[in-house]
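Protocol step 4 of 5: obtain the predicted structure for the target chain.
Materials: sequence only (see below). No template structures provided, no constraints applied. The aim of this step is simply to have a reference model before the mutagenesis design in step 5. Sequence pasted as it appears in the construct record:
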Amino acid sequence: MKYTAYAEKNYIFVIFQGDQQKTIYEGKVPANGKFTLHIPKEYAPYNGMARWLITGTTEGGGLDMYIPGKNFSAGLAEDNIPVEKSTFYTDNTAFTEIGNLFREQTNILSRYKAMQQAVKAYTPNDTNYTIFQQECQNQLKAYDNFQQKLKTRNDYESHFIRIVNITKGISPQLAAPPLDIAKNIEQYISNELDWQVLYTSGQWTAIINTWLNIHTQVIKNHEQFSADFQKVSNRITSPAIYINLAKTIAHYLSQQGQDEYINAIAPVITKSGKISNYSDELAVYIKATTGSQAPNLIIPEQDADDRTQTIKITDKAFQQTLLFFYQSSDCNTCDQQLKELATNYQKLANQGIRVITLSADKEKEVFTNKAKTFPWKDAYCDYRGKEGKNFKNYGVTGVPSIILIDTNGKILSRGASINF
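Step 4 output (structure tokens):
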């Protein structure tokens, strides 16, 4: 590296591993601006994006760069800022190529949008109308050719372009309705995305969240989600990438109260053999899944923090048990679901369904004030939030979560809402 403009400045050097930015080097630019950055052996050879950032200054500065898995050099053609525009590379043409590809795509998209606006502004009777229409078609064809070129190249640069496109909502196909654009993006992620490239791209969380949003908000089909995840599962060979993916999905779906989607892919994950330790976020895939035995509840005895009592999850007086995990504060969905549950409680009781609620509240007063409004008697809280034993035993990390259990203690279903 040669950056005289940043002499005596402190910096950090970061690489990307899934949802993590790993700071692998910290230092100070020497007076002559020349220094060397190393990829540690545990990450080498590293093929992906990296970030070199100036720290401790108001003006900041730095550089995003592509690490090609081999030695290269970078520096300023001129000692000025910004470095993105004046940086030159030796033995590393990929980052320049990424810029060239982005510019090629931008030119196509700009011309296409301009012709779209022209077609809207003129009527079919205008002299140039057919010219604008034809140029629209020309740019559609140019974009298709560009996408095909990226597929044919099949290198890091081309995969990176397509990944960044998703974060900008740019579909693999132009001139498609919004619903089709979403489905095109989902199909690309399920069938074509290079997960090794994504893992080191710095775009990990954005892409996976987009994929999950399309499934949960647009497609809304558990079976298709399971089938598409199976395709992805088959393509990922790296245990590290697979584990990171499973954790990211579990975190997102739990936070969104989409336990039914977690349940849909749990069999795929557990049968993959790629995960050996199901702790933390991964616990949701093996604990209290549909068909498994529901654990009994562990509840602190009243006014005794060091003693607990066991509440059996089944009761012969009832045909089923409905467990409702909630939080009184900062959960509007929980509040709405609890109101609906209270309204329909007598109907459930008449059907032989026992209702048990478990709170993630940490303050006794908050829990007590809410629980005293319930028409059912089984309302519990251990004041440890989502870190409590019952939340962990049932693999619940997001609220509301509703679990239905039969008279033998087998879990029938999991979800985030109740259909009365």
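Step 4 remarks: The chain has a mean pLDDT of 91. The longest helix spans residues 94-121.
Proceed to step 5.
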